[in-house]
Design a protein that fits this description.
- There is one protein chain.
- With about 80 residues, the protein is an all-alpha fold.
- It has 2 domains: about 1-40; about 40-80, no CATH class.
- Helix content is about 90%, strand content about 0%.
- The chain has 2 helices and no strands.
- The radius of gyration is 27 Å and the shape is elongated.
- The N and C termini lie far apart (about 70 Å).
């Protein structure tokens, strides 16, 4: 029983060490690829476009949320 437990612990430790080394390499590769993608000019153009849309939409969303909150307050009898 004790021998099986020690063998399992040893196998787990070896698997952890070997897995973490190969896992780190895959992580670094993925990290590099995501950084390359983020710095791609086409991606940055889309990010810029999306930022503009959000900035233009915020005032309208604020008005809509304010109106909906007032309606909800009147329906529940809670008004400010």
């Amino acid at each position: 029983m004790m021998r099986a437990l020690m063998l399992a612990a040893g196998a787990a430790a070896a698997g952890y060490v070997l897995g973490s080394k190969s896992g780190r390499g895959a992580y670094e590769k993925m990290k590099g690829q995501s950084a390359d993608l983020w710095h791609n000019a086409a991606v940055q153009d889309k990010v810029s476009e999306a930022s503009k849309v959000v900035k233009e939409s915020v005032p309208h969303a604020k008005e809509t949320v304010s109106e909906l909150a007032k309606k909800a307050g009147h329906r529940t009898g809670i008004t400010s």
